[in-house]
Amino acid sequence: MAHARASLRQILWVYALVCVAVFAVTRLEPLAVVGRYAHLVVAAIFLLTSVRLTRRDPAHYGVALGGLLEPATDDRMAGPLGLFDLGRAIRKALPSAAIELGVAVGIGVVVFPLYTVGFYWWNQPATDFSLSLPPSVVSFVVAQLIVIALPEEAFFRGYLQTGLSDLTHRRLHVLGVELALGAWLLQAALFAAIHFMVEPHPARLAVFFPALLFGWARAWRGGIGAALVLHAMSNLYSEILARSWL
Asked: What is the pLDDT of residues 67-80, one digit of tens each?
């Protein structure tokens, strides 16, 4: 019990320190020169914190990504800046990445139509739907995957959800997936809280619900791969709806 309390305190302290760092960085956004890099710094805070705290067992925390966040598993030359190791890790990750991509698309096929109905009901758009994509779809998708989804999933669904789940043996089945209910709900609440802290508008708290979906996907798949792709897909889909309807 004492160990569990100590572990919980550590997790909450890490979250609090990350919140302070993210808040401080995002206050720099209005500055012309520094502000354009704020999102990259925030991404680095999430990702580097996750890598640091899960380095002993990245597979357990679901952040191994086919070796991308693991040490090399052989003695072959790492290459300049570890590029050979990186190439081998990417090649190793491709088969599982294809599966996780398929899983994310399958979840999206089920969830996105429901989200569309909710989006329409909540916003009551005054105009007809007219498809409008982001100016550079490829750049937008890459940014969502690497700068937004990967760091946030590594920290919230990787480090936080796993660390909180390890504190209890009680499990509940949600749509066939075994979850530590308290950990699942708390990671979503913490995810919503940091979004609200950065941009204090009640609508930002709504990210609690996709966080539940991402956490469910992480628990189902045993890693953050599908959740990562689903996160990026959700942001892209939401952006398209907003541009096309509002």
From this structure: 555 554 555 555 55
